[in-house]
Amino acid sequence: MKITSSNLQAIAVEPKGYPEDELSEIAFVGRSNVGKSSFINSMINRKNLARTSGKPGKTRTINFYIINESFRFVDLPGYGYAKVSKSEQEKWRGIIEKYLSTRENLKEVVLIVDIRHSPTMQDVMMYNWIRSFGYDGIVVATKADKISKGIMQKNIKVIKEKLGVEDKNLIIPYSAVNKTNVENTWTIFEPLI
Predict the structure, then answer these.
(1) How far, in Å, CA of 177 to CA of 149, rounded?
(2) Domain EngB-type G, which positions (predicted)?
(3) What's the chain's average pLDDT?
(4) How confident is the model at residue 56 (pLDDT cuts 50, 70, 90)?
(5) Residues 112/80, Cβ–Cβ less than 8 Å
(6) E-strand spans in 87-169?
């Protein structure tokens, strides 16, 4: 995929703030600090379009990034950050659920996990939710540069079993640092947009 343009188009917490057109959207969801922003930036070959932070739980809104003026990546708030109050976590969950259950532009929801760690119960719940709505259940396992190839295969097996992923090819080991599997990921995404 040749990226000719990418911009932050809208920031929203309610449907009235969502872009009003029919462009296809791929949404990314995952726990705080799994590298969603770094993933988005590396896919579109930008350094800081999606804001990365050393402080987990930074994304508290839905961020719509328009790419090549023809489709969007949508960065959803991270979940599961322990230092945030229960009421704040509930608020984020409401924002995510409203978007996921009402957005007609949405073509796929991709779960982002950290390849170094076994998926949490929240990841399992989110994956089951994604599958229950008929999405493919693509899982991007970030931070692949931080482990050896042997450990990577073992961890992919753990992710597959814990989440109940039927097709191992839907789990993509990914590194934003050395761009591992950028092209393979685009190969999966392009038919959706």
Answers:
(1) 16
(2) 22-193
(3) 87
(4) very low
(5) no
(6) 106-114, 139-142
* Ramachandran angles phi, psi of 180, nearest 5°: -60, 125
Q: For the purposes of burial, counting CB atoms within 10 Å of the CB of 131, is it exposed (0-12), middle (13-18) or buried (19 or more)? A: middle
Percent of the chain exceeding pLDDT 90 equals 62
Domain count, the chain: 1
Secondary structure class of 55 (helix, strand, coil):
coil
Separation of alpha carbons 131 and 68, rounded Å: 28
Q: What digits encode the pLDDT tens for the residues 23-40? A: 999 999 998 888 898 999
Q: Residue 186 is part of which domain span?
A: 6-192
- The pLDDT of residue 120 is 92
182: domain CATH number is 3.40.50.300
Question: What is the three-state SS of 1-38?
Answer: CCCCCEEEEEEECCHHHCCCCCCEEEEEEEECCCCHHH
User: Helix or strand or coil: residue 62?
Assistant: strand
State the pTM of this model. Answer: 0.89
- Residue linked to tokens 């008929």: 134
Residues in the chain, total: 193
